[in-house]
Design a protein that fits this description.
The chain is built from eleven helices and nine strands. Strands 1, 2, 3, 4, 5, 6, 7, 8 and 9 form a nine-stranded mixed beta sheet that branches. The protein has 328 residues and is of the alpha/beta class. It has a single domain, classed as Bacterial extracellular solute-binding protein, family 7 (D-Maltodextrin-Binding Protein, domain 2), CATH 3.40.190.
């Protein structure tokens, strides 16, 4: 009996040694959008690549639809270490890094080509912003392309600048608020997850959002019109707590960095088609208005003062980025 117990112990020890190592590090990601949205799909790609490359050493858990944090809460939640990772609109850093609003300066990046140049890793525009965000305690892993800003309205469409007069408008950044004020509207800042109820209840009369958000958020159920202005570009960033990042080993950081780069490139390349598909779907459920050159010129003229407010608010970094944008 004694020999049997000894033999059994040896077998169990051998089995324990040969068992695969369980996931040692879990990284949770907060996302305000549904997983079916293209940002959610992008995170799923990241999860798949990281878990496969790490062979179970890294586990990624995604919490979509603002289950844990609203968009505006993500930067502080990640910076404090309350959660390891999160996805937030770039505009959510405006309180600590006012220069992030560069992408909301009216018509600063009116083409996809210019957006790609500005958002490229290491560019004269992106790198200073990544560095500034790092000072908050959150490290940018990659940027997620979201698409151009569009205007939503109920009843009468918003086509000309004067159509904004007297309207309460949902915005998601100070500079978009200044844009709204410049044409006679009253901006109301709120997160993306709060939009539906605000439109449904009439808390606001109109709103700004990305074309690609209309269908996943079911905004077509509570708004009648969509106007494609392309006056601003929406960017999201995936961030990780910097202490968490530094506590990972070199192999883990390499795996995460590689997957981040892969999924960023993939999404950026798909963005034009994603927007085109989203616009086509929106046309089935709403009235969609696309501005002509004359109308765009009117909007540019009416909102031209916004750049001055941006530079005043964002200081030396904002001025630096404006100059860099002109060189693009």
């Amino acid at each position: 009996m004694k020999h049997f117990k000894t033999g059994l112990a040896a077998v169990l020890l051998s089995a324990a040694v040969s068992m695969p190592t369980l996931a040692e590090t879990t990284l949770r990601i907060s996302l305000q959008l549904p997983l079916k949205h293209h940002l959610g799909q992008n995170l799923l790609q990241f999860k798949e690549q990281v878990e496969a490359a790490s062979k179970g050493d890294l586990k990624i858990e995604i919490y979509p639809s603002a289950q844990l944090y609203k968009d505006k809460e993500v930067p502080s939640a990640v910076a404090s270490g309350a959660i390891e990772m999160g996805v937030a609109s770039l505009a959510r850093f405006v309180g600590t890094v006012p220069a992030v609003d560069l992408f909301y300066v009216p018509f600063m990046f009116p083409s996809e080509e210019l957006v790609q140049k500005a958002t490229a890793p290491g560019s004269s525009i992106r790198q200073p912003l990544d560095d500034a965000i790092l000072n908050t305690g959150a490290r940018v892993l990659w940027w997620q392309a979201y698409g151009g800003v569009a205007l939503l309205s109920k009843g009468d469409p918003i086509v000309n600048p004067e159509d904004m007069q007297g309207k309460k408008v949902r915005v998601f950044g100070k500079t978009l608020g200044d844009f709204t004020k410049s044409v006679g509207g009253a901006p109301v800042v709120m997160s993306g997850s709060e939009q539906f109820l605000a439109y449904q209840r009439g808390t606001v009369d109109a709103g700004m959002t990305g074309v690609a958000a209309v269908m996943p958020r079911k905004l077509y159920q509570v708004m009648d019109n969509l106007t494609v202005t392309k006056h601003a570009d929406i960017e999201f960033v995936v961030i990780i707590n910097d202490k968490v990042w530094n506590n990972l080993d070199d192999s883990q950081r390499g795996i995460i960095a590689s997957a981040s780069r892969n999924v960023e490139i993939d999404l950026r390349q798909k963005m034009v088609q994603i927007e085109a598909d989203a616009l086509a779907e929106s046309k089935k459920n709403m009235k969609v208005f696309e501005l002509n050159d004359q109308q765009i010129a009117a909007w540019k003229k009416a909102t031209s003062s916004v750049v001055d407010g941006y530079v005043e608010n964002s200081g030396a970094l904002g001025k630096q980025l404006i100059e860099a944008a002109k060189k693009l």
